[in-house]
Amino acid sequence: MTLWSLVILQAICVLEGKVFRSGIVNGNCCAREDYAHMVILRRNKRPICGGGIIDSNTILTAAHCLRDKSPNNYEIVAGGIQLSGIDGKPYRVKHIIRHTNITCPFTFDIAILKLESAIDIDNKTTAAIELNTETITPGTMCTVSGWGLTSANGTTLSKVLLHTNLRVISEPECEGYHRPDLIKPWHICTEAKDGTGACNGDSGGLLVCEGKAVGVASFVVPCGCGYPDAYANIAYKGYNEWIKANRYL
User: Fold this and answer.
1) Where do the Peptidase S1 domain residues begin and end (predicted)?
2) Which backbone phi and psi does 238 adopt, to 5 degrees?
3) Residue 111 neighbours by CB distance under 10 Å
4) Which of 124, 221, 235, 238 gets the most CB atoms within 10 Å of its CB?
């Protein structure tokens, strides 16, 4: 798969000549039972993003992963760690619910997928994850996982699910690396030392802190090069209330 192919699989927003993409660099292989909430999002059978199980019929992911609004073109694969999906089970998407306020650059970058059939939750290979509703203190260590690129200049997705540990940083610290108007209260950021962090293809995956889903992977500028990773902050009132209002539709 070429880098250009990966680029068109991801939502891209160009601002002042910078390309914003989302995606694990310097990650470690995952034990399935530790990341049983994670799913692969596929469009026309091709992996494009990650997502997380929040109940047996509902997946949380990034809105920018769903530029094609036809649910018939999407499915998720749950229960495995192989990118091929050979060790998991596919589930068709019935409804796509994107946050109506999403704009470039990744404002309100959150979406819900409703499935045609319920995931068989066994709490070993598949599990629903609890959503965080509290403010996360800067310095908290969290984990992000995904099947994205393993280097900033890579050209292929990881064949297995990888994870890495990252430290949550404050909004002002995050703003110090990015454009002043880019980081908002609805974002949560993690420190990204050179060679570590999320990368293309990890969009939609969940940032997990102390066993709860804290963020949805949104963008990095660029990946694995020292800039903080930004996530949709699930505890943000506008997100938390939106999820409650839409997850059972």
Assistant:
1) 24-248
2) -65, -30
3) 25
4) 221
Residue in 109, 158, 163, 229 annotated catalytic: 109
The set of residues, in sequence order, having a beta carbon less than 8 Å from that of 244 and lying 6+ positions away, is none
CA 202, CA 206: separation in Å to the nearest integer?
Answer: 9
Give pLDDT tens digits for 152-205.
777 788 999 998 899 999 999 999 888 778 899 999 999 877 667 888 889 999
Q: Verify whether residue 122 is a known catalytic residue.
A: no
pTM, full prediction: 0.87
56 an active-site residue?
Answer: no
Q: How far is CA 54 from the centre of its chain?
A: 13
Decide: helix, strand or coil at residue 34. helix
Which residue, 103, 89, 75, is CA-closest to 232? 103
**Residues making up the chain, counted from first to last:** 249
> What's the Cα-to-Cα distance from 116 to each of 32, 93, 94, 113, rounded to whole Å?
24, 6, 5, 10
Among this protein's residues, is 203 annotated catalytic?
yes
What span, in angstroms and rounded, lies between the C-alpha atoms of 210 and 105? Answer: 29
Closest CA to 231 of 36, 15, 50: 50
Which candidate in 22, 145, 158, 203 is catalytic?
203
User: Residue type at 114?
Assistant: K
Give the integer Cα–Cα distance in Å for 227 and 190: 9
